[in-house]
Amino acid sequence: MDLDVRRTTAPKRRSLKKCARLTSFLIGLQMGDLVNVVARLRALQHGEAVPVVSQRQLVIQPHARVLTLLAMAGEDTSVHAVALGRFGDAPLINICPDPRRRDDQNDLLRWLLPYIEAYYAECRASGTFPQIWVSSAGALGHLDTLADRLRFTDEPDIQRLGNLLTYAGERSPIAGQQALISATAALRAHYATGQQESEDEHLGALLTWIEPPPGRDIFASVAMAEEHPMGVKTDPRFDRNVLQPAIANFHEARDTGQPDAVIGLYRTRIQQSLESVIRPIYAATQRAIALLNETRWRPNAGMVELEAEEARVFQRFMIDRDGGFNLPYHDRPKASAMKIVAREKAVANVEAGMLRNDHAAREKGVVNGTVLRAQLVDIVEERVRPRVFEYHIELSSHQDSLHLRRGDVLWTLEDPAQSFRINDVQRRGPLTWISGTILHGKNAAKRMVAGVTLEFGPKAPNWEGIGNELGQMSVRLANEPWTHGDTLPAATPVIRPRPASLLAAVEQLT
Question: What does pTM read for this prediction?
Fold first, then answer.
């Protein structure tokens, strides 16, 4: 039988304490997982963020660059100010007095280009990949949008900057990517706060939860932190009272032919105003990296594969740019299909890798049912033919959130690598009983003894196999499928009779 094991009995009358536990469980269903809810409740109770993992959840390049951009209000693809620096270093800051003037905007972008080019060349020469840190998801989106716009300007040097930044932008939605990192996302992968998840996108507030000032109310401290912008836009009151008058004076001086010294004075005033906003954002991003680079976070073996994959992708990207291959604004159907498959494979690989190498991810997998933690009850050896044997196992688990079906193949999460195909799943009282047949690792099965606890999950990640699969897809999609063409194929009558139950027919296919 196929079984989706869940509790289905209605709750009975409970004590207040048990009702509180049930309430927490229901909140957990809404917020994602029970572990996250418990951590947030604990952070709320103590007025301080609590770690939710013990191992580092990302790769931190020692040469990583912090890139902080400010956009002018109402100009979503503009760059008003830039702060750029290596991890641990002071920023280089430059501004554009008014990004609405195209020449002034391009001058600022040309100032940025040599630094990005030199960094990419350094990473390429050393066989690694560039890593750019921004403050938040909003800053990440702004950089991605900016790169798209710059690629299609009519000036080659600006196009070059757009192409280079597109590497980070195109990698950002890929699971496991390490090229473009949002500081808030990186911190949230390690800490849980006592506020709503959406409020964690303010880097200043998030850092306040992680390092609360002593002797002060946490919510008062967070409210003060939220007074300072941490994204790509300045505060409207700042725009109205400080920035707009300074820009107006700058234009008046330039339009009326004032001396260069006077124009430079107004430009300096604009720069000082913008620096008062951009420096705290840059410093907060640097602080986020420093927190995650502390020795308290244990190494994560899963990051080694992600680092190697990022380096391979970056080298291919730069080879394509050297070969003159353009980056299209919209992908063709074939390229789109291949990118979708690559993203799906990346998600599966990251999940499989984390379940194997990250203790917190594995425990969450046990809670939500993606990991089977079971006790070996019995193993039976069956002689199929001379010197060929099959091994059948029976497992029992206390988990009540498993999602298992006949035919599923699960792999051990520890060495030696073994896999088994599920033959039957049943729920008997408080236990889930699973029977199956060993597919891989039969020699190790000979040494298995009843009573041992085993953990099963998806197959080990195979990052290099993605390229092989995409190569096969490219051959199959050499001719455009009719679903993306202008003509429909001729109707083909179905000779076989229609099954009485379509659902039963589909289930038999599995």
Answer: 0.84
